[in-house]
Design a protein that fits this description.
With 267 residues, this protein is of the alpha/beta class. It has two domains: 7-171, 3 Solenoid (UDP N-Acetylglucosamine Acyltransferase, domain 1), CATH 2.160.10; 195-248, Up-down Bundle (Udp N-acetylglucosamine O-acyltransferase, Domain 2), CATH 1.20.1180. Helix content is 17%, strand content 25%. It has helices spanning 192-197, 202-217, 222-232, 237-248; strands spanning 7-8, 13-14, 19-20, 25-26, 31-32, 37-38, 43-44, 48-50, 55-56, 61-64, 77-80, 85-86, 91-93, 101-104, 109-110, 115-116, 121-122, 127-128, 133-134, 139-140, 145-146, 151-152, 157-158, 163-164, 169-170, 178-181, 186-190. The strands form three sheets. A ten-stranded mixed β-sheet has the order 3-6-9-12-15-18-21-24-26-27. α2 (202-217) runs antiparallel to α3 (222-232) and α3 (222-232) packs antiparallel against α4. It is elongated. The termini are far apart. Mean pLDDT is 95; it is low at 260-267.
């Protein structure tokens, strides 16, 4: 399963049925789980932890040191969950002493030429489309999708079940369950189609839509809207997640931009 034209450091730990194609280099402090395939011309550097049944396509570089001038050689990791696919020429840097790791969850798809910088935390079932770029310390919730050619500013937080439209420049936090579109980015409604595809009922989707109508359409400021939602909407996991996310946001959440040339119509 290991091609003779590869270099694998004798201290690297590969499960018995890992397949490694020619001209790949695997450094010392590396662990690779069962059933994983690593394509040609891949570089896996110290600190990589790759789970089971992953696929790493040619040209990817996993666990290179951070592109951070504060990095002082600390012993950090880049951790990839099970069943995750890393496509061609993806780069995933390992962490710094801020979080000590960069993490990509289970069942993710990181498409070609994407970059995941140091200390990013990506949840499960996420998709980064071609050439998506995450700066350092970004947090991405479960089932989030970032469309191609998008760039996310450092320390941004993106909630679960969100959709970031292609070519977006993300410089605000994105609450869960919504879409953001256009440039500058604006609230584009609830990610209704994505939620229904993942098994959310019509009743639950409508509840989320009503919550975001209160936040974006009521004329309240954000604090007033959250207080109103807490007092007038029945408690649910989704309501509480939205409230907690927005209240914890330090840089503020994405706004809604309305004008005659760029009007977003709520579902």
């Amino acid at each position: 399963m290991i091609h003779p034209h590869t270099y694998i450091h004798p201290e690297a730990k590969l499960a018995d049925n890992v397949k490694v194609d020619p001209f790949t280099v695997i450094h010392a402090n590396v662990e690779v789980g069962e059933g994983t395939w690593i394509g040609s011309n891949v570089t896996i550097m110290d600190g990589a932890r790759i789970g089971k049944n992953c696929r790493v396509f040619p040209g990817a570089v996993i666990s290179a040191i951070p592109q951070d001038l504060k990095f002082a050689g600390e012993n950090t990791t880049a951790e990839i969950g099970d069943n995750t696919t890393i496509r061609e020429f993806v780069t995933i840097n390992r962490g710094t002493k801020d979080r000590w790791k960069t993490q990509v969850g289970n069942n993710c798809l990181i498409m070609a030429y994407s970059h995941v910088a140091h200390d990013c935390l990506i949840g499960n079932n996420c998709i980064l489309s071609n050439n998506a770029q995450l700066a350092g310390h970004v947090i991405l919730g479960d089932c989030a999708i970032i469309a191609g050619m998008s760039a996310v500013q450092q320390f941004s937080k993106i909630g679960a079940h969100t959709y970031i439209g292609g070519g977006s420049l993300v410089n605000k936090d994105i609450p869960p369950y919504i879409k953001v579109v256009r440039q500058p980015i604006t609230y584009g409604g609830v990610n209704s189609l994505g939620l229904k595809r993942r098994g959310f009922s019509n009743e639950k989707v409508n509840e989320i839509i009503d919550i975001y109508r209160t936040i974006y359409n009521s004329g309240f400021n954000t604090t007033q809207a959250l207080d109103y939602i807490e007092e007038n909407f029945h408690a649910s996991d989704e309501r509480d997640e939205i409230i907690s996310f927005i209240r914890a946001s330090e840089r503020g959440i994405v706004k809604r931009i309305n004008n005659k040339d760029s009007e977003i119509v709520e579902e």
